[in-house]
Design goal:
Layout lengths: L1 E4 L4 H12 L5 E4 L5 H11 L3 H5 L3 E4 L5 H7 L5 E4 L11 H21 L4 E5 L27 H18 L4 E6 L1 E3 L9 H8 L4 E2 L3 E6 H13 L5 E5 L2 E4 H11 L7 E2 L2 H18 L7 H7 L9 H5 L8 H14 L4
Parallel strand pairs: 1-2, 1-4, 2-3, 4-5, 5-6, 6-10, 7-9, 8-12
Antiparallel strand pairs: 9-11
């Protein structure tokens, strides 16, 4: 039996669809019943019989830090997809990131070892990949530099160390390091905000760029890796190295909206993060922009995606523009959300 943690997130929900339509009856973890609606909505994008397929999932209410509940979720499990994580670039969430992403993965790895799981797949991030060397694209082997990363990146890197521990304890493991994942269903958080900003006809766009990939590409790679003999390897999943401007213009056009015209300069962002800090300090509101986030936006890193094709010869990235066009069509159907 297959266990998917984080079944109500962007990757988890699309992964579950892939698994159930292939005939599997996976078990998936969730934290609150309200979150289940997100997965149901994702299923509705694919098939009119989504209710029946959704009911093929065995849902378990479980927190990665609740070892007793997690232990029950592992009963009868042979394969584990670990997609649950806290994603935050809020500086004051640093300890929480370590608690959820690192300690949570530590607990999961211990149970994988105790239950002699056949294979583990962990969803990490390009944030946990080392910096580029000169003008060369970033590869999986690039050296990690903790001093140049965010709290989120530190937590994902440390979680990877737990997965490597599992591999040393006899659990075949694979790690995927996706770029910015573009996909439908979560429009007001994460990468969904790119679609929302384009729809609102934002006049500004972010400087520089990064690696982007569709959620379907991420899920496809995960399933193929788990079904293969590949073990104890990590893979960068980036379809295109794009500037934020290119992405924003593309989404605006696909949503039939005006394209952004003004770049947010780094000096402007440095002012904005300070203003955001003051607002957060005075009102207690969550930060929307941090000093480190601005530092990241001040540089462009390109990623080498060739390794996945070396190990999975039939893997092919979908055309990203075609994927975003489909995502935008789904977005437009939900304009009244």
């Amino acid at each position: 039996m297959i266990l998917v943690t984080g079944g109500t997130g962007l990757v988890g929900s699309h992964l579950l669809w892939n698994l159930v339509q292939a005939g599997h009856k996976p078990r998936a973890t969730y934290r609150t019943k309200k979150k289940l609606a997100s997965t149901k909505k994702v299923f509705s994008y694919y098939d009119n019989t989504n209710e029946a397929l959704f009911n093929a999932i065995e849902w378990v209410q479980c927190d990665l830090l609740d070892i007793t509940a997690l232990e029950k979720a592992f009963e009868g499990i042979s394969f584990v997809y670990h997609a649950a994580a806290l994603i935050s670039f809020e500086p004051k969430d640093y300890q929480k990131l370590l608690k959820v992403n690192v300690e949570g993965t530590y607990n999961l790895v211990n149970l994988c070892i105790a239950h002699n799981i056949k294979k583990l797949c962990y969803v990490s991030s390009i944030a946990a990949i080392g910096d580029s060397i000169g003008d060369k694209p970033v590869k999986e082997s690039n050296e990690w530099n903790e001093n140049s990363t965010s709290g989120y990146a530190v937590s994902k890197h440390a979680a990877e160390m737990e997965v490597w521990r599992a591999s040393q304890e006899g659990i075949p493991s694979v790690i995927v390091n996706p770029g910015v994942i573009l996909g439908p269903g979560f429009w007001k958080s994460g990468s969904g905000l790119f679609f929302y900003a384009a729809w609102k006809e934002s006049k500004y766009y972010l400087p520089n760029g990064t690696g982007f990939v569709s959620v379907n590409d991420v899920v496809s790679a995960m399933v193929k890796l788990m079904e293969s003999k590949v073990k104890n390897e990590r893979f960068i999943l980036v379809n295109q190295n794009w500037s934020y401007f290119k992405l924003n213009v593309l989404l605006a056009k696909q949503l039939n909206k005006k394209t952004p015209k003004k770049e947010l300069k780094i000096w402007m962002l440095n002012i904005l993060w300070r203003m955001d800090w003051i607002k957060s300090f005075v009102t207690g509101s969550r930060r929307k922009l941090s000093k480190h986030a601005v530092k990241i936006l001040g540089q462009t890193q390109f990623y080498d995606n060739s390794k996945i094709n070396e190990f999975i010869t039939d893997y092919k990235f979908e055309e990203l523009q075609k994927a975003t066009a489909h995502h935008c069509s789904l977005f437009l159907k939900e304009q009244d959300f």
